[in-house]
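Assemble and predict.
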Amino acid sequence: MNGSHVVAVDVGGTNVRLGMIREDGEVIRRRRTKIPEATGASMLYQALSDRILAFMASNGNLPAPKGVALGFAGPTDSSAGYVYCAPNVGGLVDLSLGRSLQRLLGLPVLVANDANCAALGEFWCGAGMGARSLFMFTLGTGVGGSLVIGGDIWEGEWGIAGEIGHTVIDAGGPKCNCGKRGCLEALASGTAIVRDYIRRAGIRSPGKRKAITAKAVFERAKQGDGIAKKVVADAARALGIGIANVFNLINPELILIGGGISRAGATLIKPAAAHARELVFPPLKHNLKVRKARLGDDAGLLGAAYLAFRRAGW
Amino acid sequence: MNGSHVVAVDVGGTNVRLGMIREDGEVIRRRRTKIPEATGASMLYQALSDRILAFMASNGNLPAPKGVALGFAGPTDSSAGYVYCAPNVGGLVDLSLGRSLQRLLGLPVLVANDANCAALGEFWCGAGMGARSLFMFTLGTGVGGSLVIGGDIWEGEWGIAGEIGHTVIDAGGPKCNCGKRGCLEALASGTAIVRDYIRRAGIRSPGKRKAITAKAVFERAKQGDGIAKKVVADAARALGIGIANVFNLINPELILIGGGISRAGATLIKPAAAHARELVFPPLKHNLKVRKARLGDDAGLLGAAYLAFRRAGW
């Protein structure tokens, strides 16, 4: 008989995180490994399956899990376990991830978008507990987003709802990786912050360029570096517009800011929220609640498990 | 005993429309009157109540309606029958419209936002029939929007969800009436189209300025007027960004374009939809469905009645 836990997996651009999660939201064990280098879909399926089986094997006396719930860094149709493309995971496209892993593992497998999982994790056990509705920004290399309504993700009709990073907020603005101009991602992501700093500071040497990270820019801003302060202020203004657009268009009870870049904390989130407050419908400006996510790397694991227990009823 | 119909009322910036609506969506009778000039809230309540009572009295042998369902041109908290402000109806603020009309009429009264009612009308009996989810743009003097999910409007936690007109799509763009810069409303509303034409054509005489309407600009564009064509193309590009932002962020099955400006039809909607298709997530570009609303002035009446029958269970 299977136990009352699931294996949750969070496949990001850099790491694969694994966790055993109980129905009450307790993370029993965790493991982090590097993302496998995969030049093809079947190689990726095999490598993920190997890591999951090894993790399960290391759990010794635990009964078999109910199944595997996996959050993946790419636009996903969770009803079909299908990933449209994985720009940050080997650039693969058209992945029947759910079906393939199910076959390799001999266990039920559920696949959802990683940002959606992180939002559900915060909703279940983190900064979003008790909210009737929330929107979570995930700021990292890119900018993701997820909408929780009625205790579940609103994924839209084709699974991509929440893509705030690819809404245009500055029609004539800088070019985005997606090919458009002025997407929020081109203005407020870690990549945008680094690129903007390099450009303004006129850094030419490849070695010096490589040393610039978003974290470094935030630290320089805190230390009073004028260029870094300007770069962070611009990113905060863009994020503020994104927050206000979400508030005016979707009007959720709570807006969360998560992802690696959110660790900059008050340096970025405070001015962004202040700018958003100037932009929302004035009678409601005090109803705008912006909070930092607080589960960190556990959010994605917990959200995947929540989907398994609550949506799929495992 | 009351009959099986409701009085639906649509209070816009110019007209008050009234209709008797049956549970099957049949509009039994209609009337249109000018919006009353009201310098205060109680004057507005009284004038609306007078018009509704006169309309009911003229219905002769019909039994009394189940109640009054009213769509209002302003941000509304429909659970409380409360209107935050009425910029196009005398500039009044803080209207306890539901409670006041209920007292004056001695009938149940339901109040909702007019754009939301129009979207529900199209969903019930018009261009949105059968859609699982839809977003409707209402293009007129301003730009409104409404989201239908699960057979009802998603109004957000404070009733203002759908305000696509006041999302920023061009951070450095023209000033909007709301005080912000680059709102969709400042780029694609009837007002924006007229203002842009007057500016580009360098029209100075107040008489000539007054003669320019959005309809006139569309007609001139069709006749080949270069300035008008440029103005319409710019509005279509802005609307296209708005459509793509909604598709990426909310991902509804269907996007409808309604409101007076939508009568320009293909001149505006076709290039806007084409531009949106360039901006959405490429694998889904053929899933983007943009349609013109088709109920015209009846949409708001029918949607208000739908709320009474379906949400309130009258």
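Chain A touches chain B through 47 residues (CB under 8 Å).
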